[in-house]
Amino acid sequence: MLTLSNLSDPVIRLFNLIVDQPDKSHPGSLVILITVLLVFICGSPLPAQIINQPYYCELRGSIYIEEYPDRADFLVYEEDSEAFADLLVFETDNSLFADKPGIWYFTNDRAFADFTIYFVESKNNADFTVYFTAFESFAGCNN
């Protein structure tokens, strides 16, 4: 149960100021009190900090390389350097092993693909960049 003893001193003073000595010139003082109390009881209405992981960090599975960029799910640029790539990709020979982010199996049949990509010539036109690594343990987002 919420009692005044559970609240901090500034809230108690604000409560006493509004309830004990209401100000007729400010009819919204009760609304302010309720808002302040709700913030202290429930916490801040704003999220503390939202860290969104980029969508490409979760890409895994079977991939089909499109011939036309309009038909692809993602436009991808292949980096020459691992340091500048958004995603490190390990190419596996079996689709069953493409079960972790960054591990891709390239298929020749579009119907069996989880998503499609098109390799672009310019980095500016790409949704994200990839670097193909030789080590499966390096696959994933390049943070």
SSE topology:
Elements (H helix, E strand, L loop, with lengths): L8 H12 L8 H14 L18 E5 L8 E5 L8 E5 L11 E4 L8 E5 L8 E5 L7 E2 L2
Parallel strand pairs: 1-4, 1-5, 2-5, 2-6, 3-4, 3-6
Antiparallel strand pairs: 3-7
Number of separate structural domains: 2
User: Which class of secondary structure composition applies to the elements?
Assistant: alpha/beta
Q: Characterize the overall form.
A: elongated
In round numbers, the mean pLDDT is 82
Counting DSSP H or I runs of 4 or more residues, the number of helices is 2
Query: What is the share of helical residues?
Result: 10-25%
Write up this protein:
- It is a single chain.
- The chain has a 6-stranded parallel beta barrel.
- The chain folds into 2 domains: 4-42, no CATH class; 55-141, no CATH class.
- The chain has 2 helices and 7 strands; from the N terminus they run ααβββββββ.
- The two termini are 46 Å apart.
- The protein has 143 residues and is α/β, with parallel strands linked by helices.
